[in-house]
Amino acid sequence: MMRILIVDDNASAAHATAALLVQWGHEVRLALDGASAIAAARAWRPQLVLLDIGLPGMDGFDVAATLRLEPALAACRIIAMSGLCRTGDSGHVAEAGIELLLAKPLDIAFLRSLVGDAACARPAPSRPPMWD
Amino acid sequence: MLTRLLALRLAALVLAWIAAMLIVAWLVFAGRQVALERAERATAAFAAVVEQHTARTFQAVNLTLAAVGDAHQLAPRPEKNHPQFQQMMARRLKDLPFVRAIFAIGPDGWILHDTDYPATPQVSLADRPYFRAHKLDPMLAPTVWPPLLSRSGAGWFLPVTQALSRSADFEGVVVAALQAEQFREQFRSIGLAEAYLISLFHLDGTLVASHPERAADVGKRFGELALFSRLPLEASGSFWTKQSMLGGERMVSYRIVQGAPFVVRVSRSKNDALAEWRRTATGAAVAMLILTIFLGWFIARLARERVQRERERQRRMQAEKLEALGQLTGGIAHDFANTLNIVAINAALMRELCANAPALEPSLVQVERAVRGGTALVDRLLSFARRRPLRLERVRLDAWLKAAQPLLAQAAGSRVTLVTEADLPLAEVLCDTAQLDTALVNLVVNARDAMAGSGRITVRAYPCEDNAGAPQARVAGPRFVCLSVLDNGPGMSEEVRRRALEPFYSTKGEGGTGLGLPQVYGFMRQIGGSMSIESSADGGAAIHLFFPVAAAAAAGRP
Predict the structure, then answer these.
(1) Among A9, A10, A22, A106, the residue to mutate for chain B (most B Cβ within 10 A)
(2) Which tens digits make up the pLDDT trace of B279-296?
(3) Rounded to whole angstroms, how far apart are CA atoms B195 and B267?
(4) How sure is the predictor about B69, in pLDDT bands with cuts at 50, 70 and 90?
(5) Mean pLDDT calculated for residue range B452-470
(6) How many Å apart are CA A86 and CA B376, to the nearest integer?
(7) Helix H or strand E segment including A85
(8) If you count residue pairs, one on A and one on B, with CB atoms under 8 Å apart, how many are there?
(9) Can you give the pTM of this predicted structure?
């Protein structure tokens, strides 16, 4: 079980993703734009942010870069999604501190393997995995 | 091709040219008439001047002879060779520079008085025609005779004669010998150009003198000249004739000398009369020729510029169209991806929520399959829209070609011969080899399909200087490495060739997505290169991919 923050300006997509992740047993919160995503991340300290790149105003890369400036979120994984790329594309991804870029539509099985990994492996160093 | 305005301008230009031609032609033609009329007036004027001059000469001689005759009449008759009489004659002779000698002949034909006495021998002139005529008719009026050849070797002369007495008794004849030579001198002194021929004829057709000199013809008769058939009708006139002493067409003016049986003839060759006009006409013709050449050059340049502009405009339009289609395709791909995303996630959710509802299973499988198909389409659209990030590396296309040969041969199929060639050495280019593989497989499959499965495909890598034929502006500065795919299939029509790079334009009907070539084009644009298609409807097609050499290539950005 992981705390996952979903950031997507498309409400239908965000809600569906949230429902799916909840179904998989994760704790999920939603943010529909960049600013509220950063606020939510600061307050809630998710273990993983599922971040849409094509946000209005502040885009996904800006959000990721801002989050990376927060020492408290150092252990937080950021996985981005975009409708204009293909899974595994590099580019700005590394500079923005994004672990991986996923193409839309999301490959459900791949997503499951990713969040599955997140649930049991790579614990935040300050907190042991079983602690939560 | 031509706009209305340009066509109007061209028409105006050509009309102006025709008008200029007509005006110049008319001026030249009119100029010729004027030149001929002027020549006629000039010869007529000269003929009049010469005639008056000649008439005065004969008048002066007649007056002198009359004076000599009167002096002889004073009784008693002077003795033969009387010095006083001779001196009187000599004095009178001085006033007539064109008269060589004056002498009086007695009724027996022997010379009575002679200005040249005693240098001249005693001779009888009883046989001379003028003497006989006067003897026959003592009342014969003063007469000028046709030229005679002097017996003293002084050349041709014109005898001007009068009876010594004015009564019916024949006392002899007084004669003035006019030197034909002197007339020639006179004509020469008028100072006309060589092109003019001035001649003096006796009315019987005998030539007396001419300038320029025709010594051999003096004394001969030229009764056959056109002039002499006109004389009985008119005392003066002008006409063109081809029948002349000098040959060629000439303007002839003549005038019968008043008071003497002579006619003055002035002629001038048509060639000479038209010489000045001809120079002007030649100048005009050369000017018009230059104008025509200039006009032709100007129109040709206009047309060439027009064609070039049109070609450039089409090229730019094509590039802009592809650019706009790229933008549009990118937007559609993005929205479509988001929509598919919602479908995919909800399908997954349904699978989770209704794990024990087997009735839903087939529908879910259909939905998932549709999502996969849609995902593939999004991928291709993104390729054309140049939104796919590249993994650029430095590649030598000959090495790549060698490695890709089996892949391409497989794409070509067993009935197609695939030949790969490379002109070495090749510079390195920046390229994403995985996508280059896809692109080339795409092109080879296209070529194979165009050849209906059998034929020959050549893939050739070679250095080239510019990207001729690509929709992008022609660049000759940075060098390119070109990769060409050539087939010997049926080729494509110009319409197909022009639109081949547009997405969704397919000639394969249901089977084609219309994204194969656009995908390759998007890829080439993304790595900073370009692409062109060459084909004729007669057969054969060539796709050229232009890769900028590595040093000059801009790094592709996602």
Answers:
(1) A106
(2) 999 999 999 999 999 989
(3) 8
(4) confident
(5) 79
(6) 11
(7) none
(8) 82
(9) 0.54
Residue to mutate among B328, B334, B342, with most A CBs inside 10 A, is B342
Instruction: Give the pLDDT mean for B374-398.
Output: 80
**Token digits for A38?**
């950063």
Residues of A whose CB is below 8 A from B330: 84
Query: Measured on CA atoms in the order B115, B120, B123, B125, is the torsion positive or negative?
Result: negative
A85 to B558: CB separation less than 8 angstroms, yes or no: yes
Q: Tell me the per-residue pLDDT of B430-457, one tens digit each, with 9 for 90 and over.
A: 888 888 888 888 888 888 888 876 788 8
Interface predicted TM-score of the whole assembly (ipTM), two decimals? 0.83
Q: Cβ separation of A12 and B342 shorter than 8 Å?
A: yes
A13 to B342: CB separation less than 8 angstroms, yes or no = yes
- CA–CA gap between residue B111 and residue B118 (Å, rounded): 11
What is the 3-state secondary structure of B353-391?
HCCCCHHHHHHHHHHHHHHHHHHHHHHHHHHHCCCCCCC
pLDDT tens column, B181-214: 888 888 888 777 677 888 899 888 888 888 887 7
Distance from CA of B346 to the nearest CA of A (A): 6
Look up residue B399 and give its two tokens: 């090495």
Rounded CA separation B189/B211 (Å)? 10
The position carrying tokens 């699978």 is: B351
Question: Using an 8 Å Cβ cutoff, are B373 and B343 in contact?
Answer: no
Residues of B in contact with A19 (CB under 8 A): 349
- Identify which has the larger pLDDT, B173 or B423: B173
Which residues touch B245 (CB under 8 Å, ≥6 apart)? B197, B199, B214, B217, B222, B225
